[in-house]
């Protein structure tokens, strides 16, 4: 009986302990269950882990791709051409072919995939900093095509050149073989020896032809500018240089920086002469009029003019003719001669129209190769039924079939014919204003305004 009461008491104690424990848990506030499916529920702004651990708005490089976490979604894109992914941003990829997207224009080493283009080209730049080839030493590169350099002399023959230069065929009129004197206008200069080939393209916009951070390495054989990564020089004309890249112009001659020029007025006092290549040079031309009473002094000036009807022939005044052609510093040419003028040096001379020299200058003038050929300056210099007609750089007699012809603005009408008048030619033919020097104009109908 005692055992039964003991068991009952133990059971009651166990139940009380169980109730006490349950009561302790119920003292804490229960966690409410929120119904987020209703119309007023707040949106869930906690994204799923679709960004692979990348924070919202952050970027990283996944190989060559730029990956960005945007709205909980990992978005990838490739960098623009010329850029590569580095540290979560697209940067210039710093290769050295010098072709850059606009966003990289200030990076001196920027790069894109550049495809050289040499289709139809024999020489010159390939568009990617390389070359499409070079020309033979007797040729030069003209817009990607190798052409033979015109052998006509237009000023001093120049010093003997090195490999890559050229020697013309002909005579130099004052010094012997290998000299550096003045060759006869319209002739060529073999007696003066080889001369460096004038760079046809490198001489113009030398460094400006290249992207920022690059400079022009002039190929002296082709005359083309090859752009290479490098620092441009800063030295100005007349300052010392040992290399072309010391000079801002890229032109270094005789250890002095030079510059492009049209006349000596464009050059500094340290090198006041504009040479036949169009570069400032320290040498000053010394006029020579020994034994001459008229004509050219060798430097574009005059040794004198003839009076009355006399004309200048080979430096001497002789009896002239009505058909004489005015020839700038040379005075007048006879009726069977043409006035040949070099635009490079402003030197003029008279030569028989039938001579090989005159014919060569005429062809060069017609092709715009720095010469003027004056075979007539008005109709009186031509035969019956002919007119004096001007081309771009040449005046010559043609059949009377042209509505426009040359006229002398100082001569009375009706040299242009009925219904026409002589209008001054306002566009100079050269830096020495050849039209103005010859008093030349163009015949225009009186119903038209002068140009």
TrEMBL record:
Keywords: Signal. The keyword Signal applies. Residues 1-22 form the signal peptide. It comes from the Bacteria. Residues 27-49 are annotated as: Disordered. Residues 37-49 have a biased composition (Acidic residues). This is Uncharacterized protein. It comes from Lujinxingia vulgaris.
């Amino acid at each position: 009986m005692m055992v039964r009461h003991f068991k009952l008491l133990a059971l009651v104690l166990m139940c009380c302990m169980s109730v006490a424990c349950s009561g302790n848990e119920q003292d804490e506030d229960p966690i409410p269950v929120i119904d987020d499916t209703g119309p007023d529920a707040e949106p869930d702004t906690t994204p799923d882990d679709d960004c692979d651990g990348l924070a919202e708005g952050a970027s990283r490089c996944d190989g060559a791709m730029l990956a960005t976490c945007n709205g909980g979604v990992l978005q990838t894109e490739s960098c623009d051409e010329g850029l590569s992914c580095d540290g979560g941003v697209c940067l210039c990829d710093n290769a050295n072919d010098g072709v850059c997207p606009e966003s990289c224009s200030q990076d001196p080493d920027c790069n894109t995939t550049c495809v050289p283009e040499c289709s139809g080209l024999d020489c010159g730049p390939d568009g990617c900093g390389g070359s499409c080839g070079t020309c033979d030493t007797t040729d030069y590169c003209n817009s990607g095509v190798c052409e033979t350099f015109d052998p006509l002399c237009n000023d001093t023959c120049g010093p003997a050149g090195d490999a890559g230069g050229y020697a013309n065929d002909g005579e130099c009129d004052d010094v012997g073989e290998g000299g550096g004197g003045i060759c006869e206008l319209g002739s060529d200069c073999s007696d003066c020896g080889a001369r460096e080939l004038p760079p046809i393209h490198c001489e113009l916009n030398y460094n400006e032809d290249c992207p920022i951070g690059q400079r022009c390495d002039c190929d002296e054989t082709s005359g083309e500018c090859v752009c290479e990564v490098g620092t441009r020089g800063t030295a100005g004309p007349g300052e010392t240089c040992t290399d072309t890249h010391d000079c801002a112009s890229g032109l270094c001659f005789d250890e002095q920086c030079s510059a492009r020029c049209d006349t000596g007025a464009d050059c500094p006092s340290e090198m006041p002469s504009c040479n036949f290549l169009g570069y400032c040079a320290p040498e000053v031309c010394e006029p020579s009029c020994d034994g001459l009473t008229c004509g050219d002094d060798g430097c574009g000036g005059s040794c004198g003019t003839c009076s009355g009807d006399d004309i200048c022939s080979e430096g001497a005044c002789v009896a002239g003719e009505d058909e004489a052609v005015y020839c700038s510093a040379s005075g007048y040419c006879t009726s069977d001669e043409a006035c040949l003028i070099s635009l490079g040096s402003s030197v003029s001379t008279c030569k028989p129209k039938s001579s090989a020299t005159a014919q060569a200058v005429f062809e060069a003038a017609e092709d715009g190769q720095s010469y003027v050929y004056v075979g007539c300056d008005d109709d009186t210099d031509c035969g019956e039924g002919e007119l004096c007609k001007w081309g771009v750089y040449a005046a010559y007699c043609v059949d009377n079939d042209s509505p426009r012809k040359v006229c002398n603005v100082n001569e009375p009408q009706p040299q242009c014919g009925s219904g026409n008048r002589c209008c001054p030619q306002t566009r100079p033919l050269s830096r020495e204003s050849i039209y103005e020097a010859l008093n030349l104009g163009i015949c225009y109908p009186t119903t038209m305004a002068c140009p």
